[in-house]
Amino acid sequence: MKLKDILEKIKFWNKEEEYLDEDLDESLEGEPSDADKKFFKKLNKKIVAAMVAAALLISAFAGVTGVKHVMAKADAAEEMIATVPVVKQDVQKTLSATGTIISAQESGQFATVSGSYPVEEVYVKVGDEVKAGDPLYKLDMSTMEETLSYQQQALNLQNQQNAISQQNADKALQDAKDAGAVQVNDANRSLAQAKQDKAAADRQQSNSNSQVDSSRNAENDARRAYDNANANVSSLQSKVNDIQKQIEAADENTNVDDLKKSLDAAKLELNSAITDRDGKKSAYDVAVSNRQSAEQTLQSAKDSAATAARSLDSASASAANTQNTANNNIISQYQAARTNELSSKANTLSAEQEIAKSKEELSKAVVRASQDGTVTNVNIVKGQTYSGTDAVVIDNVTSLKATADIDEAQIPQIAVGQKVQIKTDATGDEILEGTVTFVSPTATKNSTKTTDGESSTASVSKSRATYRVDVTLDTLDENLRLGMTAKMTFITADAKDALVVPTTDLQTDADGNKYVVVQKADGSTKNVTVTVGISDDFYTEIKDGKLKEGDVIVEAGLDGSADAVLDEMGADGGIYFE
């Protein structure tokens, strides 16, 4: 049989049916890690090589001649290099974990009482549907009700005594207020008149201020107009002087008559500018005079305002003295009344606080549901004295989510917003879509994981931190139930229509650079260094553009030749695995 035929008969890795033993199949069903998947991918080629070698060894029993015949045919087939085209497809980098289906909304209901009381009645059982506010159970608080009754009777007696004492203190206070009111009213009338006089003086000062501002603005405008007119005169005077110099320097070729006409026109314009400047100067002088007059008026207004202010201060001091005298009398009586009031409150405050505490305690006798949902656990029975938490547990069974504890090495790859694919035994092959909505910033627990070394007789146990991750389900299935095991696949990276090559065909040169062997059209090959992106179980994204779709690369693990098969054997001809 030709080597090519042998390879065709045992090339089972392109077929649909399973080719590993049952133990390996079961381990793959448990969502293997990325490292495991790459190992099994590589192992497939090792198995192929091993089976080819086995076929060659079997042929040895037919005689040395048969082996030589096979090897001779293999030399011809050695030219047939195994290749694979560069293609475009979607690549997803994933992370797998096993989690649990839980309620998106769960609460433990319990009485927040300060004491311990027997349960008087339980209104719900496991499986009952409740609404927020529905009663769940009731505590027997008859002893607290008796205590509250005694406290209220003692407070009523104390309040009657306080009322009589307070009436006497309030009357003395009112008498002091009435006597002081007459004196204060007279002083306030004088103060009000002084305020009116001060307000009038202030208004006059304000008006004078406005007039000064206006006159100053007018003076500034007049000054600018005068300066502009003066500048115009200077400019025209220069023009006249220039023309005169031209006339004086004229020769026989110069038209003196035209220059003289220009000079006359310039002199007329200059005379008009001088007249305008003189008018602007007069207007400026008037503006200065008006400003000075306004400033004098302002000073008089300020003097009047100062006089009014002094009168107001005097009236205010008089009113204040009168008010102080009256206030002192009132304060004296107020303090007596207040002292009496505080004394009464001091006698009753403790009782009122105890009553408030008793009422608050009694208000908690009936424990009600804080949310809609289904009762999933009842930890109390009638007659039991219960003061713990989670007496009744309520879950919203229509709003579910998945949760998992992710190992510390993988948690950096998880982020809120990532898409997740979820499968359960109850929902079969259906893939439920979800989104990461919570990543715990702190470790939730320690998980004990075993790391196996190369030796089959030793293992190392390590305690590693895990972090809780919650996934909100975008799609639900009626077969889902609380507590079900969820197989979760986190999509940590995604590349659409990416240029890819098989991961096993990537090689590494001495400098650590990744490259693939590309077969040219003439059958020769060349090494092409590439920049890689994300990888899934079998393919790696190529990002640098050095390859294009349809390029042919040589498979790195098995090139189809007899030498390639024998390369998988040990030096002594035996088969080995890395």
Quick summary:
It is built from 7 helices and 21 strands.
Topology summary:
Layout: H1 3-10, H2 22-29, H3 34-60, H4 64-77, E1 83-85, E2 87-103, E3 106-109, E4 119-122, E5 129-130, E6 135-139, H5 142-248, H6 256-362, E7 366-368, E8 373-378, E9 392-395, E10 400-407, E11 419-423, E12 432-439, E13 445-452, E14 459-473, E15 485-502, E16 507-508, E17 514-519, E18 525-529, E19 532-535, E20 539-542, E21 552-554, H7 562-567
Antiparallel strand pairs: 1-21, 2-10, 2-15, 3-9, 4-6, 5-8, 6-7, 8-9, 10-14, 11-12, 11-15, 12-14, 13-14, 15-20, 16-17, 17-18, 17-21, 19-20
Helix pairs in contact: 1-3, 3-4, 5-6
Gross geometry: flat
Distance between the termini: 29 Å
Query: Radius of gyration, Cα only, in angstroms?
Result: 52 Å
Number of helices: 7
The chain-level mean pLDDT equals: 79
Number of strands: 21
CATH architecture label of the domain at 144-362: Orthogonal Bundle
Summarize the structure in words.
By secondary structure, the chain is an alpha+beta fold. Among the domains are: 1-82 and 559-578, no CATH class; 106-140 and 365-394, OB fold (Dihydrolipoamide Acetyltransferase, E2P); 144-362, Orthogonal Bundle (Helix Hairpins). Helices cover 48% and strands 23% of the residues. The strands form 4 sheets. Strands 2-10-14-12-11-15 form a 6-stranded antiparallel beta barrel. Strand 16 (507-508) and strand 17 (514-519) form a beta hairpin. Helix 1 packs across helix 3 and helix 5 runs antiparallel to helix 6 (256-362). It is flat, with a radius of gyration of 52 Å.
